[in-house]
Amino acid sequence: MNDTPFVIAGRTFRSRLIVGTGKYSSFAIMAQAHEASGADMVTVAVRRVNLLDRTRESLLDYIDTTRIFILPNTAGCYTADEAVRTARLGREAGLSNWVKLEVIGDERTLFPDNEALVAATRTLVKEGFVVLPYTNDDPVVCRKLEDAGAAAVMPLGAPIGSGLGIQNVNNIRIIREFARVPVVVDAGVGTASDASLAMELGADAVLMNTAIAGAQDPVAMAEAMKHAVIAGRLAYRAGRIPRRAYATASSPVEGMVGR
Amino acid sequence: MRITLNGDPFEIDQPLSVSDLLARLAIDPRRVAVEHNRIILKRQAFSEIIVREGDTLEIVNFVGGGAL
C-alpha cells in the first residue's frame, strides 16, 4: 500500500520513527539501536563541552550523518530565552536550522510551559528556524504553535520517560484532525503497542528515547518500534472497523450441519 | 590572565584567538559552537576573535539526549 511521504518543511523522511540519543549504556549500543530502528532522524542535546574528558569521544562519531538527519533539541531549558539561546548554539554546532524546541515548565512532570513555548517558537521562526515544538496534548496550544509558524507539532503521549503510553487518546485524535502541519507524538511511549496506537490515531510520526534506550535489550526494542510504527500507520490508512458492543458472526449462518 | 570558560575560571598566558584556544583544549572546531561574551560566533570567525582577560566563553557540543 503506497503511502504519502512523511515530509516536514519540505524535507522527506523514509521512516516515521524518530529516536533519541540519550540514556544508552554505550555509544556502540546506541548506534546498533539506531540501525535496528530504521530511523533517519535522531535528536541530540546541546551541552557544554566536558573539558575534563580527555577521551574526546564524540556522539557524532556514532551517527552516520550521511544517512541520518540530526535534530538538535533544547532539552532542559526552562525559559524561552534559554531555549532560544540553546537553539542558536545548536544551529552553529550542527549547521542546520532545525530545532526540537522544549521549554519545560515543571521539574517533576517535565510538562511544557505553553506560554513560553509559543513565544520561543515565534522568535525562532522569525530567525529562519524550522521549529518542532514539544507540546502538551492540547489542541488549542497546538493551533497557537502552528499559527506561530511551527513546522510540526509534537504533543506528548505521557510525561517524558514515564512509559505510560498515550494518556489522552481523544486529544491526540483531535490534534491530528485540526492540524495542518505534521503531528509527531513525542514522549510517553513505553512499548511497541503505544507506538502503534499513536500511528493508528493518525499521528504522522512518533519520537521516543527512553522506551528504546531503557529497555533490557535496546536493539531488539528498536526493531520492535520500527515494526510497530509501520503496522500502526498501515492500520490507520487501511481504516479500522467500527467498535460494536455485540458480536457479528464472520462465518455464514446457512448450511450448519444437523440443522 | 583569567577568563571564564564554561562557567569556571580558566587561566591563559596571553590573549589568543578562539581557534588557538580550541587547539590548546584539543577540541575539534567542526564539532562545537562557541559563544564569546554572549555573542554566538560563526565558525569562520574563530581565527579572528581574540579572547582577552575577563572574557566569558561557552563551548558547547552535541551530547546524547532525547528530551529532559
Question: Quick gist of this model?
Answer:
The complex is a heterodimer of chains A (259) and B (68). Chain A is of the alpha/beta class and 259 residues long.
Secondary-structure element series of chain A? EEEHEEHEHEHEHEHEHH
Structural class, from helix and strand content of chain A? alpha/beta
Oligomer: heterodimer
Sheet having the most strands of chain A: 3 strands, parallel
- The tally of domains of chain B stands at 1
- Fourth CATH level, the homologous superfamily of chain A: Aldolase class I
- Extended strand count of chain B: 7
Helix proportion range of chain B: 10-25%
Straight-line N-to-C gap of chain B: 37 Å
Mean pLDDT of chain A: 94
Largest interface between protein chains, with number of residues from each side: A-B, 48 and 27 residues
* CATH hierarchy: architecture of chain A: Alpha-Beta Barrel
The end-to-end distance of chain A, rounded to whole angstroms, is: 43 Å
Task: Specify the number of helices of chain B.
Answer: 1
Query: Structural class of chain B, please?
Result: mainly beta
| CATH superfamily placement of chain B | Beta-grasp domain
CATH topology of chain B: Ubiquitin-like (UB roll)
Sheet having the most strands of chain B: 5 strands, mixed
- Tally of contiguous helical segments of chain A: 8
Give the CATH class of chain A. Answer: Alpha Beta
List low-confidence stretches of chain B: none
Question: Your description of this structure?
Answer:
The complex is a heterodimer of chains A (259) and B (68). Chain A is α/β, with parallel strands linked by helices and 259 residues long. Chain A has a single domain (10-238), classed as Alpha-Beta Barrel (TIM Barrel), CATH 3.20.20.70. Helix content of chain A is 36%, strand content 16%. Chain A is globular and about 85 Å long. Chain B has a single domain (2-60), classed as Ubiquitin-like (UB roll), CATH 3.10.20.30. Chain B has one helix at residues 18-24, and strands at 2-5, 8-11, 16-17, 33-36, 39-40, 50-51, 56-64. Chain B starts with a strand and ends with a strand. Classes of the chains: A alpha/beta (259), B mainly beta (68). Chain A binds chain B through residues 19-24, 27, 30, 43-49, 51, 54, 56, 58-60, 70, 72-73, 75-76, 85, 88-94, 100, 102, 104, 110, 134, 160-161, 186-187, 207-210, 213, and chain B through 5-7, 25-28, 31-35, 40-43, 58-68.
